[in-house]
Specification:
Order of helices and strands: HHHH
Number of helices: 4
Oligomer: single chain
Shape: globular
Distance between the termini: 22 Å
Structural class: mainly alpha
Bound molecules: protoporphyrin IX containing FE
Number of strands: 0
């Protein structure tokens, strides 16, 4: 996908808006229960996705073939699903921890798979 870097950064901006809004809400209410959710919306969502986008832009050969698109879809789905689950777990750890904890861990492994795809693309195609 030729515009994959644009998609990475636009989607990251979406996560950033949600993450910053949550940060503002935490500050206003002085309730920091959801601070790990806020941190990962901004970091796993915006910071990582923007970095991925910039790297794909810098080395366009990394975008050839389907793997960059697979990485984009995987990272987006994993971030959205896992952070939604994290919201429920943090909101009520006693009830939702045992219910969603395992599936949350499994989902996040998808992010690691995405990073492995990204690492392989960088290793094999990002030549000076
Ligand atoms: C409108 C912008 C933002 C607001 C209002 C905001 C607000 C907050 C608040 C109230 C906390 C909780 C502090 C505590 O637990 O004592 C927090 C934690 C945190 N924020 Fe933000 N934040 C904003 C943007 C960002 C951005 C852009 C990032 C990263 C790129 C970020 C990363 C973090 C991290 C990593 C923590 C956790 C720190 C820790 O646990 O020690 N925040 N933020
Ligand atoms: C597969 C992806 C990831 C997993 C499973 C993961 C897991 C965790 C866990 C379990 C914590 C402790 C939360 C707590 O103390 O309540 C944590 C905290 C933190 N992680 Fe991650 N993380 C991931 C990705 C990242 C990335 C990509 C970044 C930065 C770019 C990051 C930055 C941080 C920071 C700054 C904290 C401390 C903030 C806080 O206490 O809220 N994490 N992470």
């Amino acid at each position: 996908m030729q515009n994959v870097e644009r998609l990475f950064i636009l989607t990251g901006l979406g996560f950033l808006l949600i993450g910053m809004s949550l940060g503002l809400k935490m500050g206003m209410t002085q309730d920091f229960t959801l601070h790990p959710l806020h941190a990962h919306l901004n970091l796993l969502g915006f910071v990582l996705m923007t970095l991925f986008g910039l790297v794909y832009h810098t080395w366009p050969t990394m975008k050839e073939g389907p793997l960059a698109s697979v990485h984009y879809v995987l990272h987006t789905v994993v971030t959205a699903v896992s952070l939604s689950l994290l919201y429920f777990v943090l909101s009520d750890p006693v009830v939702n921890g045992p219910k969603y904890g395992m599936i949350l861990d499994i989902t996040l492994m998808g992010a690691v798979v995405g990073v492995l795809i990204f690492g392989c693309l960088f290793w094999t195609r990002a030549k000076p």
